[in-house]
Specification:
There is one protein chain. 60% of the residues lie in helices and 13% in strands. The chain contains 22 helices and twelve strands. Strand 11, helix 18 and strand 12 form a beta-alpha-beta unit. Helix 3 packs across helix 6 and helix 8 packs parallel to helix 10. The protein is flat and about 95 Å long. Bound molecules: uridine-5'-diphosphate. Uridine-5'-diphosphate binds next to helix 19.
């Protein structure tokens, strides 16, 4: 019976422990103690607030430190420049801007007066004094575009939330425009930025600005039609291309829309029938960063990267309003159904009149054409890969009974979810092709690593011959004038 006194002993010590615990809790949560804790909490919170107020957060610290380091490293250059600019009369220009919380400040830039001012403008160095604004806390390295007072309407100001943060030297909207994917407008870019911004996302935007500066360009000087390696293209923006689709969807005469990327141009060199087809198409759109680069090198600026994949959601949105219906032809079995589900989930009022996978025999073809005709669709999208899809459409356009048809390549694979699309930051950096290569290296290596080089070589050769031609005509006209 030795177990019983031991058990009593254990129970007694448990009770003692519990009493000690209650005593402790009583002491710690007595009214005086609670008051002391509350005061201590308030002091802690306010000291944090003070630190945040003084330093303005990690982003502010980063901006301040980087601006200071750059200014110190370039201080000798600044001293010389100030000395030279003083001789021409004025050192700094001040432009009023609206900053965080709507406060107006002066943005500094070097004066454009004199030879030095003009040189700074040409070298894109006039805005360097913005570093002073960053030091002062008026601006950040990355943020929404600095706007002038009165530039935005009160409604826009409210909608954008752009004044929640400091405006920046580099902005997401500028980056998207330079990368040719600024489809949704500045307000949407501002909203995206304000919603997600962090030190990391700022660093990403700053890094992506490097390729954007190198290959990006102003679209304002672009012509309405450009010719890249003998292919004439309609130089439209994304929204103009969507409008063109909607217009064509109610036209009497059927027409074909072709998206042309660097790979398509290479194919057109080997395939004269495809080249002729592109020359005779109703609408030819420049697709991808390769075309943008080619346009820049050949001095035929491309307005926007109008690729089918980015156009598709915008087209669906326009279809909701216009009521025109789609027919989806192509992809593996089950893939067009996946696209239909995506449309139903995202644009429920857009009509899909019919669909069919792209693996049918020659014997089945008449039935497929009949099905498309009977569907009453206004727009036919064919995803069977270039140039097969373009040739398929061109040879049957008059029998298909649709006002407009377009080849869209791998679009169905993306929207059905079979192949994930590259994240936005990679597209902004013009690197979507790297992502695509990683997904299907076996199939894509030749297209990207050989094809892109061949394309670049052709563009450079064309540029060279155009230059030689221009020099020839100049020397002829000089001889003629003598
Ligand atoms: N495809 C098809 N029928 C065929 C061959 C291919 O429907 O006989 C589809 C294939 O499933 C894929 C698309 O065509 O969805 C081709 O995609 P790819 O990325 O090769 O096209 P690209 O964008 O390169 O023109």
């Amino acid at each position: 019976m030795r177990g019983v006194p031991e058990a009593t002993e254990v129970a007694r010590s448990a009770v003692a422990d519990r009493l000690a615990l209650i005593d402790d809790l009583d002491r710690r949560f007595s009214a005086g103690c609670l008051r002391r804790r509350r005061v201590r909490g308030m002091i802690q919170a306010s000291s944090w607030l003070l630190i945040v107020q003084v330093l303005g957060g990690a982003k502010r610290m980063f901006d301040f430190t980087l601006a200071l380091v750059i200014l110190l490293l370039t201080s000798l250059w600044w001293v010389r420049l100030i000395f030279v600019l003083r001789l021409s009369g004025r050192i700094l220009d001040r432009t009023p801007r609206v900053g965080r919380w709507g406060q107006v400040f002066d943005e500094y830039s070097f004066s454009a007066l004199g030879k030095t001012g003009r040189l700074l403008t040409r070298l894109h160095l006039r805005r360097t004094p913005v570093l002073l604004n960053i030091l002062k806390g008026d601006m950040s390295f990355v943020g929404p575009r600095a706007v002038s007072p009165g530039e935005l309407s009160p409604a826009e100001r409210l909608a954008r939330r752009r004044y929640d943060v400091r405006c920046g030297l580099i902005c997401l909207w500028w980056l998207r425009q330079r990368s040719n994917i600024g489809y949704s407008g500045e307000a949407a870019s501002d909203a995206d930025y304000v919603e997600d911004h962090s030190l990391w996302s700022d660093a990403g935007i700053a890094l992506r600005a490097i390729p954007a500066v190198l290959y990006g360009g102003g679209a304002s000087v672009a012509e309405d039609a450009v010719s890249i390696l003998g292919i004439r293209m309609h130089n439209l923006t994304m929204s103009e291309a969507v409008d063109a689709f909607i217009q064509a969807s109610s036209a009497e005469t059927p027409s074909q829309v072709c998206f042309v990327n660097a790979d398509c141009v290479n194919i057109s060199f080997r395939d004269p029938a495809y080249h002729r087809l592109l020359a005779g198409s109703g609408l030819v759109l420049a697709d991808g960063i390769g075309m943008k680069l080619a346009g820049k090198l050949l001095r035929s600026e491309i307005r926007q990267n109008v690729n089918g994949t980015d156009l598709f959601p915008r087209l669906c949105e326009a279809l909701e309003a216009s009521g025109a219906g789609l027919y989806l032809l192509g992809g593996r079995p089950g893939i067009p159904e996946g696209v239909q589900d995506w449309i139903a989930a995202n644009y429920p009022r857009a009509r899909v009149c019919g669909l069919r996978h792209g693996y049918f025999s020659d014997a089945e073809e008449t039935g497929v054409i009949e099905e498309i005709r009977a569907s009453g669709a206004s727009i036919l999208l064919v995803a069977m890969g270039a140039p097969r899809q373009e040739k398929w459409i061109a040879d049957r356009l008059s029998r298909l009974g649709v006002p407009v048809a377009a080849g869209v390549g791998g679009l169905f694979d993306f929207y059905s979810g079979r192949i994930p699309r590259a994240p936005q930051w990679l597209r902004e950096a013009g690197m979507e092709w790297i992502y695509r290569f990683c997904q299907e290296p076996g199939r894509m290596w030749k297209r990207y690593f050989v094809g892109n080089l061949v394309f670049l070589f052709r563009v450079l050769r064309d540029r060279q011959s155009k230059r030689a031609h221009a020099m020839d005509s100049i020397s002829h006209s000089t001889v003629g004038n003598r």
